[in-house]
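JOB MANIFEST
job_type = single_chain_structure
chain_count = 1
residues = 143
[input]
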Amino acid sequence: MTIEFPAYEPQIKTIDQKPQIWCLVRKKWVAFTKEEWVRQNWLNYLIHVQHYPASLMAVEKEIHLGELKKRIDILVYKNSSPWILIECKEQEVPLSEQTIQQILTYQTVIQSGVLIVSNGNDTKAFQITGTQIQQITQLPKFH
C-alpha cells in the first residue's frame, strides 16, 4: 500500500534539552523519537486526509498479553469497536515477518477489522474477515 503523507509541520519544542512533539490525539507533548515521527504523520494523515475523527483514536494504548504489558501505536474505533490497528516502526526498520507477527499478536487481544504495519516509507495493510486475512491496497473510508 502506498500512503502519500501530506506536508506536515508539527509543533516541536525542547524540554530539558530533549526534543518534544505535540501529539494530535493525546493533546500533549511527547518525546520526539523516530517512531513518534512516523506515528504523528499517520495521525495527521488519518485526521486530515482520511477524515477519521480524532476522538475515535487511541494512541499508545496499553494492552495485556498474558503477564506482559504492551502498547499499541494507533487504534481507530468505529461503532464503539476496534476498527483499524496500526503498528508504527522507525523509517529505517524494514517491515519483516517479525513485524507482521507483532501486530498479529496484538490482534489476539484487540480483534480489529484492519491491520496496518508501517515505517512511513513502506506500508502493509490487511483486512480481517472471520478467519480470513487479505492484503488490501487502500484504507477503508470512514462513513
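[summary]
The chain has one domain: 12-136.
The two ends are 21 Å apart (CA to CA).
exit_status = 0
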